C-alpha cells in the first residue's frame, strides 16, 4: 500500500490499483467547474478524479471501476477525505448506472495504450488502444444532461482525432483538445515494439502526446 498526495487529497493505493499519474493530473487541471454538479467518473481507480470533483463542490459523484480492489480503495479514500457525496460502484462502465441516470459532467482516464492483441493486462485497451475509449465515446452523449460535458484524457497513440470525430458525429460541441508532450511513460516504454510496429511511434522515439478532450452536449434551445 502506498500513500499519495493528489490535488490536496490523501489517497491510499494498494498494489494492483493505478496510482494517480501525470495523465490524472492533466485531466484534473482541465476539469470544468463542478460546483453543485452531478459527476460520473468512469475507470476511477483510486478515486482521484471523483474525489477531486467532490472536493471542488460537486453535489453528487458516482465512481465506477471494474476492479474490486480499485472500488475498495476508492471507498476507503472517500471516507479518509470525508467526501460522503462520492458513491463508488463496481461494474463495467455504463452498465453500473441506472437506466435513466444522467450527469452534468463525465470524466474518464481510461486504459488507452495500444497493447499486443492477446495481452491480458489490467490496463489493456486492445491493439489500437481504443477498446474502452470507443465505448465511452459511444454512450457518454446519451448519459449527459443538456449542457453537460464529457472530459477524458488519452494518449496520441490511440488517435485523438478519432475521439474528436466520433463525439462530433454524436452532436457534441468540442473545445480544442489540450495537449501535453512528455517522455514515454513506463507502460508505453514496455510496449515500444508494438507501438513502433503499428506506426504510432517512430523507431527510437521517446515522446508521447497526451490530450484532454472536452465535449459538451448543447443546451436545449428555448423557443422564442
Ligand atoms: C488508467 S487507470 C485510471 C484510474 C484513475 N482514473 C486515475 O486517473 O488515477 C484505468 C482504470 O480503468 C479501470 N477499467 C478498465 N476497464 C474498465 C471497464 N470496462 N469498466 C470500468 N473500469 C474499467 C481499471 O480497473 C483501472 O482502474
Overview of this protein structure:
The chain is an alpha/beta fold and 224 residues long. The protein has a single domain (2-216), classed as Vaccinia Virus protein VP39 (Rossmann fold), CATH 3.40.50. It contains seven helices and ten strands. A hairpin with a 2-residue loop joins strand 1 (2-6) and strand 2 (9-13). The longest helix has 13 residues, at 68-80. S-adenosylmethionine binds at residues 18, 20, 24, 43-46, 48-49, 64-67, 70, 92-93, 109-111, 122-123, 132.
Blueprint of the fold:
Elements: E1 2-6, E2 9-13, H1 22-30, E3 38-42, H2 48-55, E4 60-65, H3 68-80, E5 86-90, E6 103-108, H4 131-139, E7 144-155, H5 160-169, E8 173-174, E9 178-183, H6 186-190, H7 192-198, E10 207-216
Parallel strand pairs: 3-4, 3-6, 4-5, 6-7
Antiparallel strand pairs: 1-2, 7-10, 8-10, 9-10
The protein binds S-adenosylmethionine (SAM).
Distance between the termini: 58 Å
| Class from secondary-structure proportions | alpha/beta
Helix-strand string: EEHEHEHEEHEHEEHHE
Please bin the fraction of helical residues. Answer: 25-40%
Strand content: 25-35%
Nearest-angstrom radius of gyration? Answer: 17 Å
Amino acid at each position: 500500500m502506498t500513500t499519495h498526495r493528489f490535488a490536496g487529497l490523501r489517497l491510499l493505493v494498494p498494489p494492483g490499483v493505478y496510482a494517480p499519474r501525470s495523465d490524472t493530473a492533466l485531466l484534473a487541471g482541465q476539469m470544468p467547474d463542478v460546483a453543485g454538479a452531478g459527476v460520473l467518473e468512469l475507470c476511477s481507480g483510486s478515486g482521484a478524479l471523483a474525489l477531486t470533483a467532490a472536493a471542488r463542490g460537486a453535489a453528487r459523484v458516482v465512481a465506477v471501476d471494474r476492479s474490486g480492489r480499485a472500488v475498495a480503495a476508492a471507498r476507503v479514500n472517500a471516507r479518509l477525505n470525508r467526501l460522503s457525496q462520492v458513491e463508488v460502484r463496481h461494474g463495467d462502465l455504463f452498465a453500473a448506472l441506472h437506466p435513466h441516470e444522467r450527469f452534468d459532467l463525465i470524466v474518464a482516464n481510461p486504459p488507452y495504450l495500444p497493447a499486443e492483441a492477446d495481452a491480458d493486462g489490467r490496463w489493456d485497451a486492445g491493439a489500437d488502444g481504443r477498446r474502452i475509449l470507443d465505448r465511452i465515446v459511444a454512450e457518454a452523449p446519451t448519459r449527459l444532461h443538456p449542457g453537460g460535458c464529457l472530459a477524458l484524457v488519452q494518449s496520441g497513440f490511440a488517435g485523438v482525432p478519432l475521439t474528436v470525430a466520433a463525439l462530433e458525429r454524436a452532436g457534441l460541441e468540442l473545445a480544442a483538445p489540450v495537449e501535453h508532450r512528455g517522455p514515454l511513460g513506463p507502460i508505453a516504454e514496455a510496449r515500444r515494439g508494438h507501438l513502433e510496429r503499428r506506426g504510432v511511434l517512430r523507431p527510437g522515439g521517446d515522446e508521447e502526446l497526451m490530450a484532454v478532450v472536452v465535449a459538451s452536449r448543447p443546451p436545449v434551445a428555448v423557443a422564442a
